[in-house]
Specification:
There is one protein chain. This protein is of the alpha+beta class. It contains two helices and seven strands; from the N terminus they run ββββαβαββ. It has helices at 37-54, 72-86, and strands at residues 4-9, 14-19, 22-25, 28-29, 62-69, 93-98, 108-115. Strands 1, 2, 3, 4, 5, 6 and 7 form a seven-stranded mixed β-sheet that branches.
């Protein structure tokens, strides 16, 4: 019995994995590579909405979020403005940190875990 479901899978990663009623999303980056932090954050959150909807979950069901910013000092407040407008009143557990992202044009990456 295969109790693990994988979606959008290739040799390197699965974009979404479900196990025991929990949805794990791989790190989501913006489809817009030349935008500012506001544009890129909105793009990331739209992609998260889409990936969760495909498997029957939603942002209301997010348990944890990890947010990685290229420049936390410069972009934290603007990213939070977009996040706060998007996330339901009952927020998930969350951590935010500064990292060197995979491409110089990327400003934000978000990883979420959600309940089905």
């Amino acid at each position: 019995m295969n109790d693990i479901q994988r979606f959008e899978t290739n040799k390197r990663l699965s974009r979404t994995v479900i196990h025991n009623g929990i949805v794990y999303l791989a790190g989501v980056t913006s489809a817009i590579r030349d935008g500012n932090i506001t544009t890129q954050t909105k793009s990331v959150l739209e992609i998260i909405d889409e990936r969760l909807a495909i498997v029957g979950s939603s942002k209301d069901r997010i348990l944890t979020a990890q947010i990685w910013l290229k420049n936390i000092e410069q972009d934290f407040d603007a990213m939070n403005a977009v996040w706060d407008a998007w996330i339901p009143d009952e927020s998930p557990a969350r951590a935010t940190g500064e990292v060197k992202l995979a491409a110089p044009s990327l400003l934000v990456e978000v990883i979420v875990t959600a309940a089905l």
